Amino acid sequence: MVNILRRYYNAFLSAYSLTASTLFKKHILAGMPLAVSVELSSHCNLNCPECPTGTGSLKRKRGFMDILLFERLIEELSPYLLNLNLYFQGEPMMHPDLFTFLERCRHIKSTISTNGHFLTSENCRKLASSGISTIIISLDGMDSLSYQRYRVGGDFDLVCDGIRNLSVARKNARTDIEIKIQFLVNRFNENQIIQARRFARETGCMLSLKSMQVSDISNAEDWMPADEKFRRYRTASGAAGIKSDMPNRCARAWLNPVLTWDGMVLPCCFDKDASYIMGDFKKDTFRAIWAGTKFRTFRKGILKRRGMNAICRNCTSGMKGVRT
Fold first, then answer.
1. Counting beta carbons within 10 angstroms of the beta carbon of residue 239, is it exposed (0 to 12), middle (13 to 18) or buried (19 or more)?
2. Residues linked to residue 235 through DSSP beta bridges, in sequence order
């Protein structure tokens, strides 16, 4: 009970910091992050064409997180976290010690996101009893052709079987784990949304329809669907741009930082290449980095002119009328 109250009090402080900073355009920080995204693996088995990991264009080293680094994070932040996201770049289920990580954070509400290629019956049984709260599974098409347009190297039938395996394992374990199918709507699958809804109902899953992010905005029209609510980008005079008025605010920089597999602390999940490193968790505490000079300077810059940061120019914050 004490830990729960402490977490909600920290959430109040974090929300206050964000709100006051936004209103007064002055950097205010009281409290620790209420969520953290942790990159267990920067390796992936797929070659998705708009993902820096899949295309091989990621500008940093690949690797798997060390369990001791993760344990340090949990020890320091578990009194504050309302949610722990166990994914960033790469496929987390490729980590050879995945279930050890899940055991270490059993007492924190946690979410894992996977491309669904490792959902064997045995792995699903372990996931269902791991204490994880939510599992997100990417399924971006309802037949092999449309699915493989984006999930290059993927196996549509294997992923569907994995979703069914997980649904059965959840039922057998009598757990309330949430299974969410994530469907990135693009021009090749937007006609299959009804089928996706039907499959989600049949397997007892939630369906999340999302707009698609592209790494190179000039390629946006290659992927954007006809339905405007799933188009993150607009085209004017032949040039593509994100549908955002770029307000000088950002919840992620005050609430939800990222820890890469090798211990780099980043301001948010849009910094794929770790171009904006706020600190090295292997050398410092998370608190020192969170309240440190680099993070303070970054947040002040957002309040003054958010668009000056390259990672912010492809961000969904401030976007209206689009499923993000």
1. exposed
2. 240
